[in-house]
Design a protein that fits this description.
41% helix; globular; alpha/beta; two-stranded antiparallel sheet; binds NADP nicotinamide-adenine-dinucleotide phosphate; 7 helices; Rossmann fold
Length: 261
Amino acid sequence: MSRSTDGSAVSTREPRSATDQRHWLAGRVAVVTGAGRGIGAATAEAVAAAGGLVVLAARDRAAVAAVAARIRQAGGHATPAPADVSKADDVSRLFAVAAEIGPVAALVCAAAVLTAAPFAETTPELWDETLRINLTGTFLCCRAAFPAMHRAGEGRIVTIGSLSGIYATEKFTGLAAYNVSKYGVIGLTEAIAVEGKPHGISAICVSPGAVDTEMLRRANPDLRPGLTPADVASLITALLDGPLAPASGANIPLFSNVGPQ
Ligand SMILES: NC(=O)c1ccc[n+]([C@@H]2O[C@H](COP(=O)([O-])OP(=O)(O)OC[C@H]3O[C@@H](n4cnc5c(N)ncnc54)[C@H](OP(=O)(O)O)[C@@H]3O)[C@@H](O)[C@H]2O)c1
């Protein structure tokens, strides 16, 4: 037994059972950021359902504790580790908690913010905060995961971009900082894939369109989401659970799951 950053007892890594062996994730430690709600929370639940030992990060302690409790009630392994991914010290603490459970084998970077503002009214503070959380936060978490993955000779990373971070997709107004942060995440993922390849570390970016989450409801209440958090979570889990290496460095755009009505 070890301790999470909030002091609560957490379960330690357990031997893999024969039935677990059909899932690569089973018995492996997976850090999921942005796990307090939305896509991150759904991904934490899906990874735990595949047998992953999930470490959940977001700033809201109560939110990560509630998601972790839900996972445990469903029979999964979950450790809440509240952290602000834009802060290097928080990220170090998060990965120290994860290391107590076992070597980090998987990482999903879902933490992000979206604060809309017309370009001319985008303040340096808004710009900095968006880039610090969405891009630097992803960088800090990937960098923190790298040494354990390098030592193990394996590691799988999924970052989350957005359709709005892809050249020539339709853009919405007011999203300059957010869009640029997502272009950055896509580029970062490629760089990690290149440097990870000789060490068995794969990285892939998924770039959803509109997903039914608090972020979308706040940013664009009129936009009809074509994806649920569970849709995105099950794809991420399948990617982590599958032979990711040949696709490493790719960015997968996710369009609507809803057919014409
Ligand atoms: N929803 C969409 O339509 C859509 C489309 C394309 C891409 N995406 C991307 O999908 C990912 C998940 O978004 P979502 O829609 O699920 O958003 P959401 O519902 O707003 O959830 C975002 C999560 O990130 C956490 N977070 C925010 N800032 C953080 C920080 N500094 N440190 C740690 N955690 C932080 C939030 O918790 P705290 O505030 O408590 O920290 C929350 O748990 C994001 O990367 C987003 O850009 C979403």
